[in-house]
């Protein structure tokens, strides 16, 4: 398994992982409530995924095993982890733990000394076991009873840990600018094709801060 920066071609597979992880693994949070699931899944679609890639202060990472995307995560340059979802097919194999380590390493690379996130009920014990502690009452994300604000202090070892197989970050300028131009073009084309048939997309959340819980 390797962990790398996501690219536009990952959009379909990554969104499938996000949607399956929420629907199949996070029952303790949504309890099959159709309203909660609708809110939670609304932006887990390729057009939104591409918009997350296009944001310059956000890193979207994927874990890939045997050529298949098995987990998706994101972290801002300010150290906020917005996504950490694993495919049901890859659960209990250490994938979430490895991806979390990679997200923390990226946060350290960006100069952060702590990471923050909002945890699901499903992943609450997972994050506590990995050094995160609560920073306030549950926020009730998407109408659930959960949404635990949590934080963890980091150190330089997160970036130097050889056990985290994270490919080098994409450049922040030059080639990065050209790459993001391509992503934005694909995003605009895809969004334009489907807006007429899906009006809610015009108003749906595009910021990864509203992308969902961090679900280990």
SSE blueprint:
Blueprint: E1 2-5, H1 11-25, H2 27-30, H3 34-41, H4 46-54, E2 58-65, E3 68-76, E4 80-86, H5 95-109, E5 114-119, H6 124-129, E6 133-134, E7 148-153, H7 157-160, H8 175-195
Parallel strand pairs: 4-5
Antiparallel strand pairs: 1-2, 2-3, 3-4, 5-7, 6-7
Give an overview of the whole structure.
- This protein has a 7-stranded mixed β-sheet, sandwiched between helices.
- The chain has one domain (2-210): Gcn5-related N-acetyltransferase (GNAT) (Aminopeptidase).
- The chain has 8 helices and 7 strands.
- By secondary structure, it is α+β, with helices and mostly antiparallel strands.
- Helix 4 (46-54) runs antiparallel to helix 8.
At a glance:
By secondary structure, the chain is α+β, with helices and mostly antiparallel strands.
Task: From the structure above, extract its key features.
alpha+beta, Aminopeptidase, seven-stranded mixed β-sheet, 7 strands, 19% strand
Cα-atom Rg, whole angstroms? Answer: 16 Å
- What's the arrangement of strands in the largest beta sheet? 1-2-3-4-5-7-6
* CATH class (first level) name: Alpha Beta
Report the mean per-residue pLDDT as an integer. 82
Termini gap: 17 Å
Backbone shape: globular
Please give the number of β-strands: 7
What is the assigned CATH homologous superfamily? Gcn5-related N-acetyltransferase (GNAT)
As a percent range, the share of strand residues is 15-25%
Determine the fraction of residues in helical runs and give it as a percent range.
25-40%
Enumerate the spans where pLDDT stays under 50 for 5 or more consecutive residues: 171-181, 193-211
The CATH architecture would be: 3-Layer(aba) Sandwich
Structural class: alpha+beta
Instruction: Work out the helix count.
Output: 8
Overall number of structural domains:
1
């Amino acid at each position: 398994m390797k962990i790398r920066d996501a690219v536009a071609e990952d959009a379909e597979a990554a969104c499938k992982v996000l949607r399956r992880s929420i629907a199949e693994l996070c029952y303790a949070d949504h309890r099959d409530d159709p309203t909660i699931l609708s809110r939670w899944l609304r932006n887990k679609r390729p057009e939104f995924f591409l918009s997350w890639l296009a944001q310059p202060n956000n890193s979207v990472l994927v874990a890939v095993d045997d050529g298949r995307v098995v987990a998706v995560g994101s972290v801002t340059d300010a150290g906020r982890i917005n996504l950490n979802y694993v495919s049901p097919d890859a659960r209990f194999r250490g994938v979430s733990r490895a991806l979390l380590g990679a997200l923390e390493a990226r946060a350290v690379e960006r100069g952060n000394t702590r990471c923050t996130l909002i945890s699901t009920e499903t992943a609450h014990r997972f994050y506590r076991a990995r050094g995160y502690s609560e920073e306030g009452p549950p926020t009730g994300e998407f109408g659930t009873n959960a949404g635990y604000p949590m934080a963890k202090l980091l150190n330089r070892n997160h970036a130097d840990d050889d056990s985290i197989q994270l490919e080098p970050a994409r450049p922040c300028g030059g080639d990065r600018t050209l790459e993001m131009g391509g992503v934005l073009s694909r995003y605009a084309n895809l969004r334009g094709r489907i807006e007429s048939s899906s009006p809610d997309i015009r108003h749906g959340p595009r910021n990864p801060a509203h992308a969902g819980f961090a679900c280990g």
